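Hi F.,

I've been meaning to write this up properly since the lab meeting, where we talked about keeping a consistent format for the predictions we share between groups. The idea is simple: the sequence comes first, exactly as it goes in, then the structure tokens exactly as they come out, then a line or two of notes. No screenshots and no reformatting. I'm using this chain as the first example so we have something concrete to point to.
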Amino acid sequence: MGAWQGQGLPASVATPDTEPKEELDLNRLPNELLQEVLSYLPPSTLLRHCRLVCRRWRDVVDGWDLWRSILPWEHPDLWPVIRTCLPPADAPGPCILGRFCERRPIGRNLLRNSQSSRGLGGSPGKGPRGSTWCQQKQVLDLEKEGLWRELLDSGNIEIRVSDWWFDDRDADCLYRLIVQLLDANQAVLHHFSPLPFPMGLNLFFCLQVNHVFSNLKKGVRFVSFEHWIRDFEFSHEQHGNYPLHSSMTVRVRQALPDHAFQALGPLAEPSQY
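Output, unedited:
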């Protein structure tokens, strides 16, 4: 057989190495390098997947340092203001900056079902003078949305509410909007409620209300957003739902460009067409 042996391979050719190559183990990296690698992943991936890998990864994802390194390039327009009122690095529990990066609450409408065609379909309640009104109410927890106390109390926050309602039924009814900013104990710190507006004078009625809460008192933690409709001619069951188009946005003063809010329209008094 000469130089050929065994299964037909030349004697001078070594048998291929069948041992698996060693895989990269991120857990061998020091915390600083592991944090650097994880910082390139989307916030949702960090919070929903990486945090569950092991205790060490959870500690890195929950830590202040990781999100402090992500914020400047994740929110470059907001960083000049946010950097002056960051939460404390030694705060207990997962760092709230992670929730802020994932939920992105600045400039986003925080109301749920704000443009549903079903509109005001809540249960009837007692309104002024004991009359029956249809009501819809939402109470937003600003900290659950990712806004931390130091930022809310910094004086750099504005809260803008906008409501657009129309009625083409020529019905005799009243509409009322009530917005309140509440502290941690649900005590009222700021209140906005224009007088109830009569409707039904024309075949088509359009109402738009905008308001900006600025110079907020310290301690604002919740926003209560209420609609009230009183229909004098028909009950809610007879007449159906009232279409609503509402928004509640938080902005950082002198940080977010105005063009981000152009979709909400200019501030205006209620109008009738």
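Notes:
Residues 26-103 form a domain with the Monooxygenase fold (CATH 1.20.1280.50).
Residues 64-74 form the longest helix (11 residues).

If this format works for you, I'll send the rest the same way.

G.
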